[in-house]
Amino acid sequence: MPVTLGRQRARILRVHDFPDAVSILFWDVDPTTVDPAQHRDYVMERIMTRGTWEAMRWLRRTYSQEQLADSVRRKGRRLPPRDEAYWALVAGVELIQRSRGGRPSSAG
User: Fold this and answer.
1) Are 48 and 81 in contact (CB under 8 A)?
2) What is the pLDDT along the chain (108 residues), one digit of tens a residue?
3) From CA 37, how far away is CA 89, in angstroms rounded?
4) Residue 15 to residues 30, 47, 56, 72, 100, Cα–Cα distance (Å)
5) Cα 61 from Cα 43, distance rounded (Å)
6) What are all long-range contacts of 49-54, with beta carbons under 8 Å and residues at least 24 apart?
């Protein structure tokens, strides 16, 4: 069933309609209390970092590409670098190279 989230639209399933591949990712909470519209960032981040291929496919079917892109832009830095790069590619977001540490040039 389509749900309007601001000016964006997404196909959101009822909470109890999470597929098994998604519901098992919410081991630390009762999955029936997770609302994909209200807890969008939480759901996306959990699936982006820990989801199986089936869970990732569900994520792409459930949320629009614009919503995925918005999440990657706002929260992508919280993802491991490999996950951030994958989801930036999927969402069509240009990934800005970030420093990965190492010795500063002034260290000699």
Assistant:
1) no
2) 444 444 444 444 444 578 999 999 998 998 888 989 999 999 999 999 999 999 999 999 999 999 999 999 999 999 999 999 999 999 999 987 766 665 556 665
3) 23
4) 11, 15, 17, 23, 38
5) 13
6) 49/79, 49/80, 49/83, 50/25, 51/21, 51/22, 51/25, 52/21, 54/19, 54/21
